[in-house]
Amino acid sequence: MDSEELNIGLLLRFPYRALEDRIFAALARAGFDITPAQARLFRRVAPEGSRVTDLAERARVTKQTASVLVQGLVDAGYAERFPDPKDARASLVRASALGLQAAAVVDAEIARVEAEWSRAIGPTRYARLRRDLGELVRHLQG
Amino acid sequence: MDSEELNIGLLLRFPYRALEDRIFAALARAGFDITPAQARLFRRVAPEGSRVTDLAERARVTKQTASVLVQGLVDAGYAERFPDPKDARASLVRASALGLQAAAVVDAEIARVEAEWSRAIGPTRYARLRRDLGELVRHLQG
DNA sequence: TAAACTAGTCAGAAAGACTGACTAATTATG
DNA sequence: CATAATTAGTCAGTCTTTCTGACTAGTTTA
N or C: which terminal CB in chain B sees fewer CB atoms within 10 Å? Predict the structure, then answer.
């Protein structure tokens, strides 16, 4: 199979999926049960706490959806809510100790996957791939 | 923002999402109304016809899910079914004329996006990125 | 202070995916 | 060759994720 023949969508998607599968497998192995949608929101939770509305905006879902997902994270013990001292309408969400443990598992697995990929195609080429992707992302962001 | 700081997941996901958004926008502009899930299955339909079970396997969904999605594609006029001459249990699915038109819109938009990306980071670097991604994908496939 | 805005939730609906149970046709086996 | 096992596909029911619309309750602004 010639990579020139593969469309760029597949070239990007395939490694992404592989990484995602590895991350969720690692989480499951460590006993963390978290859905992809919850994870996507959780990634955007700031250490000092985030508002549901901010999370919704950053994850590009409606406030209602974010509200449901945050509730799920709280119910599962990965996040906790506390009132926003500056605005009585709002509450803030932050990672719980359990949530931080889960995040550590994710980071460790990403590092492991990156090490494997670097070994697979060579550290020079892998670093170059990262740089080139970074350059593309920068251009896409404006 | 330093690209070295971004995790590889984001580096892959961001361009992928951008491409996908462009494709669905182009389809919508051209008057094609197709859902992402339907599109994912449709991409795997062989010119000579595919079985629902094969599509399910390749798209990694259950036969039931594939069955529903194929029905949607047929109802929307993008695909058509005909009996498998070799197996009376099975029927084959292939793209209709309308489906082929939609596929052409997708191909054109992908080409346009690739041309833009190539211009954005330079053709040499873009070609290199493609090659490096291809190399990574080859390794991931075994 | 009243009007306008913002934070967040509730209710209801749809899409997409799942499991389980089923029918009908085909292949394998004793 | 008859019956058991397998395979193709659908139906029914459920769960998750997401949406829109309507609402409550604080906050800001005019």
Answer: C
CATH of domain A32-95: 1.10.10.10
pLDDT in tens, A19-73: 999 999 999 999 999 999 999 999 999 999 999 999 999 999 999 999 999 999 9
- What stretch(es) of chain B map to CATH 1.10.10.10? 33-95
Footprint of strand D on the protein (CB under 7 A): A 35-38, 40, 60-62, 64-65, 68-69, 72, 87-89; B 51-54, 63-64, 67, 70-71, 84, 87, 89-92
Q: Which residue's structure tokens are 């079914």?
A: B81
A74 backbone φψ class: left, alpha, beta (φ>0; ψ -120 to 50) = alpha
Stated as kind and residue range, the H or E segment containing B105 is helix B97-121
Q: Where does chain A hold its CATH 1.10.10.10 domain(s)? A: 32-95
Q: Do B46 and B99 form a contact (C-beta atoms < 8 A)?
A: no
Among left, alpha and beta (phi > 0; psi -120 to 50; other), residue B77 is: left
Q: pLDDT digit string (tens) for B32-62?
A: 999 999 999 999 999 999 999 999 999 999 9
N residues, chain A: 142
φ, ψ (nearest 5 deg) of residue A86: -95, -10
Alpha carbons A11 and B137: distance in angstroms, whole number: 7
Nearest chain B residue to A20 by CA distance is: B9
